[in-house]
Amino acid sequence: MGRFDTVRAGLRRAYLQRLEAAKAEREAAAAAAEQAAVPDPPPEPEPDLSHTTTTSRDDAEVPHGLRIAAAWSWRLLILIAAGAVLLWLVGRLKTVLIPLSISLLLSALLAPVMGVLRRRVKLPPSLAAFVVLIAGLATVAGVLTLVISEFVDGFPALSDKASIGVQQIQTWLTTGPLHLSGRQLDATFDAATTWLSDNRGSLTDSAVNTATATVEFLALMLLILFVTFFFMRDGKRIWYFLTGILPTPARDPIRRAGEASWHTLVAYVRATVLVAFIDALGIGLLLFFLNVDFWFPLATLVFLGAFVPIVGATVSGAVAVLVALVDEGAITALVVLIGVIAVQQLEGHVLQPLIMGRAVSVHPLAVIVAIATGVVLAGIIGALVAVPLVAVLNTGIRHLVEHRREPLRTR
Predict the structure, then answer these.
(1) Of the chain's two ends, which shows fewer C-beta atoms within 10 Å, N or C?
(2) What's the pLDDT at 78?
(3) Contact yes or no for 99/105 (Cβ under 8 A)
(4) Residue 381, Cβ neighbours under 10 Å: how many?
(5) How far is the C-alpha of 36 from the C-alpha of 30, rounded, in Å?
């Protein structure tokens, strides 16, 4: 009986498992039937990828090329308007911006000496800036004293030679190929005298304006010295303060770009001083050996003119040739002209690429446009600061472009 009960219990368990499996199959079939009875949702329409940049159906009807041209046009118009406003502000604030620009150039020129006094002599910032500024003023005053004293000593002799040269020109006009008569020359000089008498009032006003300009120049020089002192002493703190008002993500990139631009400005000023010194030395030695008066003032003029690229060297060289023509005659002037051209070719093809090319890389077209814009906005001083300003902006923008961080793209 025990074995029979065991068999019966096994059969009962098998029967119950079969019932449960059949019930599960019925429930699954019922659920599948209910799901099949519910209709499928309609498929979502695919997006039209041909006009993803439009905001309305009317915009989608405009040709793609015309929409791109319009987008470029209004953005360019905004940039042009912003540039016009910036130029207007520069024109209105040039009385302030010019001293700041000159002070930056002087600070870049004196920065190496300032660094030596800070690192090696261990002078405090204020004392080091004061010493450098006084030494620079003493050097400029000494050079100006030599130039003015030589000019005062040699001016009477040059004036006499100029009078003789005018007489020679008059003789050539009457006996040369033009064959002008004495009456025509007298009429010309009478017309010049009449013009001077008629414009005496404007000339007097110009003299008064010149006196006023002298006072303004002295005030400008004092402002430049004052600003240069603080640029040398607190330049980095001033830069960090100005960049501190920017948004936090933009501070570090702008600060690094500004530091790179400052190094470019220092290198530019160093290279310009070296090139100007070589030009002045070459032309000054040529004038000295040709026994041309005012060789030292003319060499100084060449040195100063070299700070205005392309234009300054041409003007200073022309002045040297004219003085040589009045002082020593046509042959000497021709030799000076050849020497000036040779020095300018040496500067343009050897010195500028070798020295200036390492400091800053600016295309000659950008140099010409910058000088012309500087002359229109601020005259000679504008031409002086235009090229270093372009060099600084070029370095800063390149640094920002090369070190920019691309935004993370989300999938």
Answers:
(1) C
(2) 93
(3) no
(4) 18
(5) 10
